[in-house]
Amino acid sequence: MKNVLILGATSDMAQAIAKKYAAEGWSLTLAALEKELLEPIAGDLQVRNEIAVQTLEFDATDFSNHRKLYESLSTKPDVVIAAFGYMSDQDEVRNDLEDIKRTIDINFTGMASVLSVVAEDFEQRGSGAIAAISSVAGDRGRQSNYIYGSAKAGLSAFLSGLRNRLAPKGIHVMTVKPGFARTKMTENLELPAALTASPEQIADAVFQGLEKKRSVVYTLWMWRFIMLIIKHIPEPIFKKMKM
Distance between CA atoms of 194 and 55, rounded to whole angstroms? Predict the structure, then answer.
């Protein structure tokens, strides 16, 4: 039975991804900062799908422990999906250095740290697949969320380089850009329904994308074209826009 390791497994996206993989007959290793919250999730998935589910504590910012944690796994994964993230209200904390550091540490440094460990193992084994949740916010810096966006831009560039490095070894790396997502992180935001993906849509996009070896997946197809337009707005015009 194939195994998928999901990092940040208590998030809405991650829970939907776990349900998708469980329904497809994969065994699961679920990792999150608050391990106690994983137990009922794991128990439900195990009973409903008759699969093996392991849980463990994972702190994205405990960089020195990432290798030890991964090497402690009793079952090494065939697929690793990094679904953790952090986003605050930029208008409230844009001058708060601690929050800026937290945003970068979780969304970029934590991802780069743990996925580098995973990549090393997959490279030695000559197989495996990695997917990580990035964001359309990283496609171009905008005044409304450039701190979060810059961390995600770094993540997307990291994944692109990792993909380039590992592809000749038969290891696939996929970048996922959900666009607007209907999750707890965005529950206080007014989002356009037509441009907002559900956790289930994201889960399907992740599963199908990895099956088809997609390099970059925009959960809703229109986001690819929206961001293409935004990226090509001339800078003199872009500077005058409120985005």
Answer: 35
6: DSSP letter: E
pLDDT tens readout for residues 43-96: 999 999 999 999 999 999 999 999 999 999 988 999 999 999 999 988 888 999
Q: Which pair of structure tokens corresponds to residue 207? A: 């599963």
Is 151 inside a domain boundary? yes
* Helix, strand and coil in the chain, % to nearest 5: 55, 15, 30
In this structure, the chain runs to a length of 243
pTM: predicted TM-score of the whole model, two decimal places: 0.94
Residue 243 lies inside a defined structural domain of this protein: no
Model confidence pLDDT, tens digit, residues 187-222: 666 777 778 889 999 999 999 999 999 999 999 999
Question: How many Å is the Cα radius of gyration of the chain?
Answer: 18
Q: Would you say residue 65 lies in a domain?
A: yes
Question: Which pLDDT does position 185 carry in this prediction?
Answer: 65
Residue 120 inside a domain? The answer is yes
Range of the domain at 99: 3-238
> What is the CATH classification number for the domain harbouring 166?
3.40.50.720
User: 180 pLDDT exceeds 90?
Assistant: no
Backbone angles phi, psi at 211, to 5 degrees: -60, -40
Separation in Å, CA 45 to CA 3, 22, 36, 65, 212: 14, 7, 15, 27, 25
Q: What is the DSSP letter of 179?
A: -
For the chain, the domain total comes to 1
The contacts of residue 232 (CB under 8 Å, 6+ apart) are: none
